[in-house]
Amino acid sequence: MVSKRKILIVPDKFKGSLSASQVANAIEEAIRMRMVHISDLEIEKIPMADGGDGSLDVMYDALSKDSSSEAQLMEVECCDPLRRPLKAPLLLFRRDGEQCAFIEMARCSGLTLLKEEERDPLKSDTFGLGLMIRAAAKAGVHRIIIGIGGSATNDMGFGIWGEGGSIPPEEIVRMSDSITFQIACDVENPLLGPGGATMVYAPQKGAIWMTLPLLEQRMELYAEKAHSILTSFGGEFAARASHITTIPGGGAAGGLGAAFYSFFKAELLPGWQLFAQMLSLEEKIASAETIITGEGRFDSQSLNGKLIDGIASLCRKYGKSPVVVCGESLVGPELLKKYKIGNVYQLMDICPDRQTCISSAEVLLSGNDPALIEAGCDEAGRGCLAGPVFAAAVVLPRGFSHPLLNDSKQLNAKQREELRKIIESEAVAWSVASINAGEIDRINILNASIKGMHRALDNLKDSAGAKVTPSIIFVDGNRFRPYGKTPYHCIIKGDSKLSCIAAASILAKTHRDEYMRRLAAEYPQYGWEENMAYPTAKHREAIALYGLTPYHRRSFNLTGNQLDLHI
């Protein structure tokens, strides 16, 4: 039985545009529309989250596919940030024989629960989150995982542990002895100061600049009260109390990071790492051939503890380079090389208007934009001793497929000729160009191959003879040069992956073979009708016996045992 090629799709959300699940589905659709031999692919999607809005849905969807997890949602009577009653879901599941719970804090204490005019961190608190934690503990769990992104509060969890809070400190102490707490925390801000919870995040929650000093003063008071309570408990609580204001991540979610670290003895983890542990992500990366990740905006922060950074680190461990799909990329080639990131595909390459990218992200990501024109390019004859190098450019109809379509080198002559007829008949546009031996000698074979592909792109025409200009170009191999301002991507072994490149490889090969068969009639002693001028033993022997023709490439090592392409 032939093993399938496994593709792992593990994206974050495109903030303000698509959920992680929508991104994963769109990427899968794009793959199935473009790749050869879809039946040989195994595609697994693991939408990821950072602990903020949508994290519970991502976790539930992933765990529901694993029957051993026994994942189920439980509705909890709690309240919103203004203590108005509401019902919020709690996710219960089993992991490694342990009963666990996942709480998305945004469902009970999140900013999206409030109207614009209601947002005021002087009035909002975390009382509802405490009710969710108590419900999880009552359900008999041994581990509680909490995503604390998207908070509406700036109370250091006082609504939970403070006077009149939802969980008295003594009860929290008992909980922390029997329950392990893990917190998805993607920031390293401390509790207080210019880089702390209040000054950095309170304005995003509705605070105006005049109230910031009051909020900071109140946070200092919370920290003093917490320190006093924790010190009275002694032991590890007292030790943790000494780090309340300095622990990295303590300022997350309006000081919840500090509260969970000190009162609940919680472990603060990057969101991607926590989700990766829960979903066995490392094992899946180790067994996948291709790993695709992404987010809306790919910048230097993405490589500083965020999801793409985490995915890249796991990929490096197994000698792999992840592909990144994003709305916009601001990461330079130096960082891509440093973190061993593979190809980066950004939607703004094909739609430069940012707002249109955001509003049409799903259509652009899946490749269903009718205005999108994708051209595949490849060459044939690069390693030959004689004759031109041929290059082809092909634009296929959307969703084009054929069971034989593959890298031309994997097909026999009959199959290639059969596919040539189909491609030339059904392609939206195609073109073949050649660069002769004299020019190859003058500019070298690499430059000649690229020039040939550019020339083929210049001559792309549809069946009515109208010029076709591609929106994006996919090239086999790892070297190309800009074709005007059209974005391009080099794909190693692309002729065995993308349909448009495979089609170009077939046209380049069949057109060159046809040319070499005609040339063989003029120079029968070289056997070009069989070897197509590749450096076979028969071809080299003929060169030794009969010398060179005007079609031989003088810059190549024509008589030695090793072929030197002089690139």
How would you portray this structure in words?
With 567 residues, the chain is α/β, with parallel strands linked by helices. The chain is 38% helix and 17% strand. The strands form 3 sheets. A 6-stranded mixed sheet has the order 3-4-5-6-7-8, with helices on both faces. Strands 2-1-9-10-11 form a 5-stranded parallel sheet, with helices on both faces. Strands 14-13-12-15-16 form a 5-stranded mixed sheet, sandwiched between helices. The C terminus is likely disordered.
* Percent of residues in beta strands: 15-25%
Structural class of the secondary elements? alpha/beta
Span of the ends, CA to CA: 41 Å
What average pLDDT do the residues reach? 93
Helix content: 25-40%
Strand and helix layout:
Blueprint (H helix, E strand, L loop, with lengths): L4 E5 L10 H15 L6 E5 L9 H10 L7 E8 L5 E11 L2 E7 L1 H4 L17 H12 L4 E5 L10 H4 L7 H10 L1 E5 L12 H5 L10 H22 L1 H7 L10 H12 L3 E3 L1 H8 L2 H7 L2 E9 L8 H11 L5 E7 L3 H6 L5 E3 L7 H6 L1 H6 L7 E7 L8 E7 L17 H14 L2 E7 L1 H7 L1 H14 L13 E5 L11 E4 L7 H24 L5 H4 L5 H10 L21
Parallel strand pairs: 1-2, 1-9, 5-6, 6-7, 7-8, 9-10, 10-11, 12-15, 15-16
Antiparallel strand pairs: 3-4, 4-5, 12-13, 13-14
Helix pairs in contact: 8-9, 17-20, 18-19
